[in-house]
Amino acid sequence: MQLDDLNRLDADDAVRELRRCCGSTRWAQLMAAARPFANEAAMIDCADVIWWSLDAPDWLEAFSAHPKIGGPTTTRWSAQEQSGMDSAAAAISDRLARGNREYEARFGYIFIICATGKSAAEMLEALERRLGNTPDRELGIAAGEQRAITRLRLARLIEHRS
To answer: 99-110 pLDDT, tens per residue?
Structure first.
């Protein structure tokens, strides 16, 4: 898909495509309404502004659209993003699974990290470090990670990267 294609989609189709990039319905609706985008940079800037204008329930909806780090992936994009898990040692995978459970019990949502380019050990280190955050601080960090994921996925959407 090219940017012009996204700009020309009807609202429902645009929301569906944009939700591939971010699981927040409200974000996708606001992005669809903000079209047409003059260029990719304008689209990314708009995505950021809309993301940070949302409320916690919108962020949590976006988080819930992701598979757990180290768990089964649901889309090709998720599998590519988590490719650092492919060569993970069993001990690291086990620690990630335990950490994921502890994180979800502590914060009420899955551990969100922009996994692209990160090894399993790097993701584990981030998870273990972030377990010490307050709930408010962690929500902001997780929202920032979701923002980074969304930016990468918007670029994939526009550039035909699968």
So the answer is: 999 999 999 999
Residue 160 designated active-site? no
* Contact status, residue 70 vs residue 120, Cβ threshold 8 Å: yes
Give which of 160, 158, 149, 150 is closest to 69, Cα–Cα. 149
* pLDDT tops 50 at residue 19: yes
Rounded CA-CA distance 94/5 in Å is 43
Mean pLDDT, rounded, for 22-46 = 97
CA distance 65 to 29: 16
Assign residue 104 the CATH number of its domain.
Answer: 1.10.3330.10
**Are 143 and 51 in contact, with CB atoms under 8 Å apart?**
yes
Q: How many domains does the chain have?
A: 1
Tell which residue, 43, 30, 34, has the closest CA to residue 2.
43
Q: Coil, helix or strand for 72?
A: coil
| CA dist., res. 43 & res. 153, Å (int) | 12
Give the pTM: 0.87
Domain around 113: 3-159
Residues 35-89 have pLDDT tens digits of: 999 999 999 999 999 999 999 999 999 999 988 776 655 666 555 555 455 566 7
Q: Of the residues 3, 6, 22, 66, which is catalytic?
A: 66
